[in-house]
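Question (not urgent): is this output format expected?
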Amino acid sequence: MVAFLASWTPMMAVMMLPAVWPVAARYAALIGQRRPLGVAAFGVGYLAVWTVAGVPAWLLVLAAARLSAATSVRAMAAVACAACGLYQFTGLKRGYLARCRVPPAMLLTDASWTGPLRHLRVGAHHGASCVVCCWPLFVLLMVAAPAGLVPMLAVVAIVVAERQWKAPWIPRAVGVLCVGLAIALLWSPRVARVLEAAPMPGMVR
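Got this back:
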């Protein structure tokens, strides 16, 4: 697990930076004094939540490795794609996506928190919202192509697009795409060739 988290944490930092940076910049403009320290604490709190989220991700990887003896990687990836696609249409996804976009009123409320750990708490609060919003995408990434550069960039693009452009059709389009990919994986073995990437350190394929 240590090896997995050692790879998972920096990967999350890099992948989520484009999505969280605008929020961190707006938060920095609100807190005024000790801005660098506050933003650093915000980032630590945000990343800490994603690090904790790596524990169930590691368990998922172990479970997938054990299932692969009886179930093909292609079938598991298809199930992950379908589950991710259906999640995109749920009220839970819509609700936490709205929180991840951080309306000005919510950001002002968070900035008004007091106490020595307030910046850390704000970062963790925002990180928790992002985890609930995005976890199916990262489950899909872990199961399907944990070391594939193109899938990683695709997930980053989806996360950023969902936050920066508030059009409701974007999450739905991602959902349709994921369900379509699930069908394609089951229909054509050629589609599964993109899943042949080497695993990240700490992963078993």
